[in-house]
Amino acid sequence: MDIKSRGKTNPPPRILEYRKQVKIFAACVKYFSYFLLFIFGISIVYFFTKQDSKAAAGVIAIGIAWFIIYLEYLLLLRPLAISKIQVYEDRVFIRRGKKEITIPFDEVVEFKAAVNKNFGGWFKLVLKNKKKYRFTIVLERADYILDAVVKYNPSLMEEEKYLKLRKHLILSDHVMGRLYDMFGKKYRLITFSHFVLLPVVFFAMLYLKQSGQFIIQSPFLYFMKIGEWTLIYMCVLWTVFALIINTIIDKHAINRMKEDIDDKSRDIEYESKIYKKFFPAYLVLLLAFFGGIYQTNFNTLGTTSLVKGSKELNINSGQRLWYDSRYNCTDCDHKLKPNDLVVTRVGVGKVVALPDERVTVNVIKKDRDKQGRSIGSVEEKQVPLKSIAIKTANGKTIIIKNMYIRGKIFREMDLPKVLRQIF
Q: What is the value of pTM for the model shown?
């Protein structure tokens, strides 16, 4: 088949738009920029009212953040969200609000592209006057533009390169279409079930079980930690399954295009068959992950490291430390004892005193020396209830509440015994 016969535009030309994902993301960025602008206005009023020099840095930071985000919306996202494109035999017509742009094909001297169907990409038309018009593959049916340009001027691109790029653009459009279907009416219930319903049910069941076994000082951090593990696993699982499914469906689409080069439509029936075959396997692996954590209490394990190390605690810089988050109190089944190494929100420390015991602690007074530095001193204090005194990595002794304790470090414990208890 001669290259001139490829590609077709049916009058009246179909209106091409960027996918709804782009429009939704653009709207989110827009309203977030408005929120930052509101905060920026409040911070300016506070700065001039209080005459607080320390607030100046915050005002500047918020202002810069708003400017960058709004500029991104204004220059990058908004033009895409409002674009409506029509492809004719001799030109591309773009309408962006009241602005109209016509790209005549006889002015196009170069067609550049950097496209990968799995990771995205773009292509652009370079005109004689050096103007460049870029299109991303999030534009639905972007292959219409390629077909029309090459049909008008076949010398712009070698046939092999054209066919390869055309294939990537078509397959990319199919992938984006399937991604939209996941959150559309067709698969919305299934997507909601495994992305929202199953995790929420699992979180609730795990919380009810573990809250009866040990004290959860901060439910927010507790759910954040479980959510982190869950999100990582689900992202890896979904990425692997998506690559497998897309590979199978893309192979089917390529075979169809080999038989008919203009057969660029999605085979919805075939896609549904593939989804029905792979979804049960995905669901089994997801439930196995949830069940594994529920049975093993794996989420109670945590890890951290000290960048600088500590001679006081005999910890080398960069040393990986593992801790059991069940040990976070002094009046429960998993009690902390003196000399236990613990991880807290203020860093790693060694327990030196329990509630009702007296201890000499480091305090910072509000007064300052001649160089403007805070004046430090030591005082003898009694450790309050639901608190402990720890010696930090830099050798200072402080009192912290139980709610700031993350867990006990394994090094001071029988690791095999701890693992047996957990699993």
A: 0.67
